[in-house]
User: Which sequence fits this backbone?
């Protein structure tokens, strides 16, 4: 996991990848965080990458393009 942000008691986990193809395997750090801290309020995980569009990677994790514009 590259970034972990907290706001008002909610945690935001973010991975950053420099490639166009991402997969569920890229959420390992996020999943490990969830397993280690099961009682925290954690928002869906984000993998920010060079992908073309938003894609669901798992039940709670999404890939987002670096440039949404």
Assistant:
């Amino acid at each position: 996991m590259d970034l972990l942000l907290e706001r008002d008691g909610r945690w935001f986990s973010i991975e950053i990848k420099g490639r166009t193809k991402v997969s569920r395997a890229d959420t390992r750090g996020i999943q490990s965080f969830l397993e280690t801290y099961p009682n925290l309020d954690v928002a869906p995980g984000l993998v920010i990458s060079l992908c073309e569009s938003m894609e669901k990677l798992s039940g709670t994790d999404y890939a987002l393009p670096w440039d949404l514009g």
In short: Residues 6 and 12 are 6 Å apart (CA to CA).
